[in-house]
Design brief:
148 residues; alpha+beta; P-30 Protein; 2 domains; four-stranded antiparallel beta sheet; 41% helix; RNaseA-like_dom_sf; Ribonuclease A-domain domain-containing protein; RNaseA; nucleic acid binding
């Protein structure tokens, strides 16, 4: 009947709205600890970054099926990297663009890039380390999203 279909569509709309709210809440609920795990490499050198090992940690913690790319910020020693990345959000002289803050200093970054090999398994390859400024999204004075 028409009323039954209308009620079903209304119920479906309410359900989809709840799912959307939950997804948006999950995206917004990242914190600096999550950001560090996803994007800060605390090794001594980018040469020691093993993308396969590191991406297994990220995928396991955040329940990703696979990510096609993930960027790690690495400038030894770690304390300098953490301080410098946090300062992106706290330094009033930095340019803010659509809620994203751009660093005034260059960071050494490494991309882990997904390469699917059907004969063996999914493998992440280390990209070439490069120096560049980065953009982050900040909440409460801390970086929580990496924008490139």
């Amino acid at each position: 009947s028409f009323q039954g279909k209308t009620a079903l569509l209304l119920l479906l709309l309410v359900f989809l709205t709840l799912v959307l709210v939950l997804v948006l809440t999950e995206v917004r609920s990242q914190n600096f600890e999550d950001f560090k795990l996803k994007h800060i490499f605390d090794g001594e050198s980018p040469d020691h970054l093993d993308c396969n090992t590191r991406m297994r940690l990220v995928i396991g913690k955040f329940s990703y099926v696979n990510r096609d790319r993930n960027t790690f910020i690495t400038n030894p020693p770690r304390s300098t990297v953490l301080t410098d990345v946090k300062n992106i959000c706290m330094n009033g002289a930095l340019k803010k663009d659509n809620g994203q803050y751009t660093s005034t200093k260059a960071f050494l970054i490494v991309d882990c890039i997904l390469e699917v090999n059907l004969q063996t398994q999914t493998v992440y390859q280390n990209g070439t380390p490069q120096m560049k400024s980065i953009k982050v999204g900040c909440e409460n004075g801390f970086p929580v999203h990496f924008h490139g």
